[in-house]
Design a protein that fits this description.
This protein has 206 residues and is an all-alpha fold. The chain is built from ten helices and no strands. The longest helix has 22 residues. The model has no long low-confidence stretch (mean pLDDT 90).
Length: 206
């Protein structure tokens, strides 16, 4: 039995169920890569994943649920890559900036997929709260891993991490919509990551 990734309260999946879920997520990502948000249609996902449409809806009640879960899956892959090849910069703020820049570059290479996932994440309602919360937790974990501190994070650090994560998502949306340049994305990421240095030296005040 395998725990449902990213959703600790969900019942564990059997190997067969997990394999089916992996096929569904792969099909979702494949369709999104080809045509963005509009290309991900539940019937086509079911056909591509070789599952019944009713089965697909039992795993993911809507397209938004599916695409937010796809975002979580893509971030998990990034997290694994970062574990294998962590940033080498000596300062925590610089490591976080490098980590988020690498994440941005990965999404930049697949703009249709990035657009689909971020559109779903941005417009998800409360019914997809578990999926959205899982993405947020994983983003926080990725940033905290880059910081490299041991032990439980302080409330001040968690606040800084939330602001960094919000800024990262915002810059991605701005870039995808053509409102900001890649250079501005880089500058904003580097600027907001200085919150880590400020928090470490006690300069952040609630």
């Amino acid at each position: 039995m395998t725990a449902h990734p990213g959703f600790p309260s969900a019942p564990p999946l059997t190997e067969r169920q997990e394999a089916r879920r992996r096929r569904i997520l792969a099909a979702s990502a494949g369709l999104a890569r080809r045509g963005g948000f509009g290309a991900v249609q539940m019937r086509e996902v079911a056909e591509s994943a070789d599952v019944a449409l009713g089965t697909l809806y039992r795993y993911f009640p809507s397209k938004v649920h599916l695409l937010v879960a796809t975002m979580h899956d893509q971030l998990e892959r990034l997290h694994e890559t970062l574990h294998r090849h962590p940033p080498k910069e000596p300062e925590p703020a610089a490591r976080v900036a490098v980590t988020l820049t690498r994440a941005f570059r990965a999404l930049q290479r697949e703009p249709n997929l990035a657009e689909a996932m971020l559109r779903a994440f941005t417009f998800a309602d409360r019914s997809a709260g578990a999926e959205v919360d899982a993405v947020s937790r994983l983003t926080t974990e990725i940033i905290l891993d880059a910081v490299g501190a041991r032990g439980a994070p302080t409330p001040e650090r968690l606040s800084a991490v939330r602001v960094i994560a919000h800024t990262w998502h915002s810059t991605l949306i701005g870039w995808l919509s053509g409102r900001i340049s890649i250079e501005q994305v880089q500058e904003d990421i580097e600027t907001v990551c200085t919150l880590i240095a400020a928090e470490t030296t006690g300069e952040v005040r609630r």
